[in-house]
Amino acid sequence: MADDDEVLGTIETQIAFLMRMGEASRRATTLKPHRALDRAAYVILRHLQQDGPQNVSSIAERLNLDGSTVTRQVTGLQQDGLVERKPDPRDGRGTVIELTETGLKQVDGVRAARRELYDRVLAEWPAADRENLAVLLSRLTHAMDAYVKSA
User: Fold this and answer.
1) Contact residues for 104 (Cβ-Cβ < 8 A; gap 6+)
2) With contact defined as beta carbons under 8 Å apart, do 56 and 67 qualify?
3) The domain over range 32-150 is classified in CATH as 1.10.10.10
4) What is the rounded (10 degree) CA torsion for 58, 62, 67, 73?
5) What is the full per-residue pLDDT of the chain (151 aa) written as tens digits?
6) pTM, to two decimals
7) Helix %, strand %, coil % of the chain (to 5)
8) Where are the domains of the chain?
């Protein structure tokens, strides 16, 4: 069995390659909806889809981003008609960011295209391996999120 240093080195390298290949697959795919949103836009829209309207601070905290970065990204999404700002029902002085119908359709289209892409990529994998990958990736992202928040 490999030593821990070798295992961690492999994990580090494979995650770097995975991130690179994720972006390359977005650009290279023939599935047009998959290319419709960049990673930053997709992550914000998926967060809003899953958790509902949020203020910029909540989005920034959840995604481990600076508020000014999220503000810029949200402004672009708003200009594209994918989100809108509405008065915060809990505090009328603030605003929340909410998906528009166009934003919902866009994120649903990208999500479906990505699922189709991964279905193609993992077509030869047994169902148990797909399930294990899903569990391990979830554990990894949760662990990384906890680490970032504690740092």
Assistant:
1) 49
2) yes
3) yes
4) -100
5) 578 889 999 999 999 988 888 777 766 666 555 556 788 889 999 999 999 999 999 999 998 889 999 999 999 999 999 999 999 888 778 899 999 999 999 999 888 888 988 999 999 999 999 999 999 999 999 999 999 888 8
6) 0.81
7) 70, 10, 20
8) 1-30, 32-150
